[in-house]
Structures are given as C-alpha cells and as structure tokens.
Amino acid sequence: MYVWFDAPIGYPSITANYSNDWEKWWKNPKEVTLYQFMGKDNVPFHTILFPAYLMGTGQEWTMLNHISTTEYLQYENVKFSKSNNVGVFGQNARETQVPSEVWRYFLISTRPETNDSQFTWTDFISKANSELLNNLGNFVNRIVKFCNARYHSIVPDPLSWPVVGPPTQSESASKEDESSSTTSTQITSRESFDEEDQAFVGDINGLLTQYIESMESLKLRQALSIVMAISARGNQYLQENKIDYSLLLASPRRCAQIVLVSLNLVYLLSVLVYPSMPSTSELILKQLNAPKRRLSRTFGIDLLPGHTIGDAIYLFRKIDPDRAAFWRKQYGGSKPSGDPGVVEPAGESKKAKKKAAHGGKSKGTTPAGPLFSGPKPPEMVEIELAIVAQGERVRQLKAGSMEGEVGMEVSKLLGLKKDLASLIEQLSKPILKVR
C-alpha cells in the first residue's frame, strides 16, 4: 500500500515538471474536469486512496470526476508475458513496420470496456484491410481522386459549374487563380442539400448524435465503430448515386452536388477520427487543403464551392494476410519447463509428448536437430519465419492439388530446416577461452 501513497503524487508532480502553470490544472476544481483512464485492478487506489490523500492536505485540489476502466486484453488466447516474449509490446509494434495509426485503431476498436477481449494477428490484419483500407481509406480516396480528375481539384458548385471533363493546362491555371480569390455566391449555407439527399443527411446526423453521446459517456470503442459506420454510409452514398464520368456527362448538376456533399463528409470524418487517429486526421486535412475544425452537432456544408483541394493520398496500405504466420511465430513465445502461465502453440503439445514416448523420434520424420536455449540472434529468427512462411506455401499447394510445384517447394522447406539446424549446431558449440 505504501507504493500507492507515493504513486498518485506523481501525477501533479509530472505536470509541474512540464509546466509552471500546473496549479491551473490540479488546483482549479471549478474550471477543470478530471478524467482518468486505467485498468480495472487500479480502481480502488484512484477512487478511494488518491482522493483521500488530497482531501487530507486541507487544500483545494481538482478531484476525480470521471473514471473509465477496462478489463484485460489477451494475446492469442493467452496472457501477455514480456519475460516469455508472449505478446506485442511497443518495440515489437515498431518492428512490424505497421503504422502507429493502425495499432491505435485496432486497440481502441477492441478496447475491453465491458469484458476481456482478444488480440489475434488474423483479426488485426482483417480490421486493417477491411475497415481502415476498404472502408475509410476507399471513401476518402475515391471522392478526392474524382474531384482531382473531373473538377480541376475545385469543390464544385451544383448551381453554376459549367465544365465537364478533364481541364487543359491553361484552364486549370485559370481556375486556380479564380478559386484563390473568390468563393461561390450560390451556396453559402451549411444546410444546402438537395431533396434527394435528405435521407442521407438524416442518417449522418443520427450517427453523429450517437457518436457524441458515446464520447461523452466514455464509450470509446463504440464511438469509433460509429465513425466507421459514417464512412460506410458515405461509400453507400457514392454507390447509390453511381458516381462516375457518365453521371457527370448525363447530370452535371447532380454529380456536382454529390461531390460537394461527399467532400464535406470527408471533412467531418477528419474531426471524428482525430481522437483515435490524429495523424490520419492530418493527412485527410492535407488532401482537403483545409484547416482543423471543431465538431458540430449536425452535418453541413463547411467546404464551400470554389475551394481548391489537394491531391489524393492513400491513407492506408494493405497488409499481406500471410504476415500473420510470421508475427504469430515471432511473438508467440516459448514455454519454459514447468511454466503453467504460457500455453504452447496449438497442436505442438501432443506431438511433443508423442515424440518423447518414442525416445525423441517422430515416425516418418527426420530428427529435429539440436535444441537451442538462450536469446535468438536475428539470423535465427529470420530463418524460423521463412520456415513458417514456406510451410504455409506447401500446405496451400497441397490443398490446391498443384502437385507439379509441391516437390520443389518441399525441397526449399527442407533446405531451410537444414540451414536452421546447422545454425543452431554452430551456435551451440562451446567457445574455447584462450588463456
């Protein structure tokens, strides 16, 4: 308990180390609302002990107003264990070269707010590809690219846009000069929507209300899922209206209205994703050539016709699903003898027992080679990951009845295993000391 007498004092002292104005935060209960986020096991210390210490000083402190706690996050159905190399930690996440925004999204979208949740590599890659790339990334990229290609990168005015088709170089320069000095005189209201768009706007406003309520009640996971629902509704809007070059030719006014509305939905998304993915928000704003904005309670036209946007940039890149096997192997850990806290990879425990019963030999297989204990050097990890990938390649070929290629790929697999055995044998040799 003595630790929890010292620990809470660290919060105001860290703030004091950062700023001489720390008392404006920690001794200003009338103007500051204190929120705290933590795991469920720390609740008693922050809701009882910490406030009691502050009250005991007799001074006026900013006291806890809201607390948001989480259950436990498991790793592939087992507990995270740094000592056993089970799980993904800060350095490991950086090693994968997956952008931090993807990690932030996954962790918040699976935040264990009401019960324990699981981290699995399959789910991680699926969310990155299907939710971030195919939903949010696709919507933003599709409408920005369309505006770049068909409207000279200028937000169109449905009531006055006269140009159809890609611009010439001189026309583009002329339009840029005009857009930098003037804005549309036709559309200046945030409520400038066609009758055909009323249902769509109603859907967005309904979701926006849910998002705000979720954030205010600290339901971060739910709020983020609503953001993705808004993005999905934007994709549906483009599909329903079949936006393409043929629509621009057949109904230029309607096409301009759809682009205007969609770009403004992208602008709204820039502020909605900011709490969870700030860098993504900045990248969206860069494409829109727009400043940061505040969150409004209703959807409206905030990017006015005549505004020049930037070039389309991919927000996310696809992650190869095959990487799951690599990462699962690399961060799955190994079970020390007699350690009940780490579960062996599926299928290995029974095989190990059967192998032991046959004197360390497995029927129909070659000897596994010498075992290696101690930290694995990078070259060993690289070969092990290559073996996992090649093994998956062989299984896929066998499943697809591609017999002509199986033999060659099996030979590669056996070669990799031989390389690993040689490396282990080399590293296991005792080092002679010269006196």
Question: What does this molecule look like?
Answer:
The structure is a single chain. With 435 residues, this protein is mainly alpha-helical. Among the domains are: 68 residues, Rossmann fold (3-Layer(aba) Sandwich), CATH 3.40.50; 167 residues, Isoleucyl-tRNA Synthetase, Domain 1, CATH 1.10.730.10; 60 residues. The protein is 54% helix and 4% strand. The strands form 2 sheets. A two-stranded parallel ribbon has the order 1-2. It has a two-stranded parallel sheet with strand order 3-4. Helix 4 links the parallel strand 1 and strand 2. Helix 6 crosses helix 7, helix 7 packs across helix 12 and helix 14 packs across helix 16. The chain is flat, with a radius of gyration of 29 Å. The two termini are 53 Å apart. 20% of the residues are buried. The C terminus is likely disordered. GO terms for molecular function: ATP binding; methionine-tRNA ligase activity. Pfam families: Anticodon_3, tRNA-synt_1g. Belongs to the class-I aminoacyl-tRNA synthetase family.
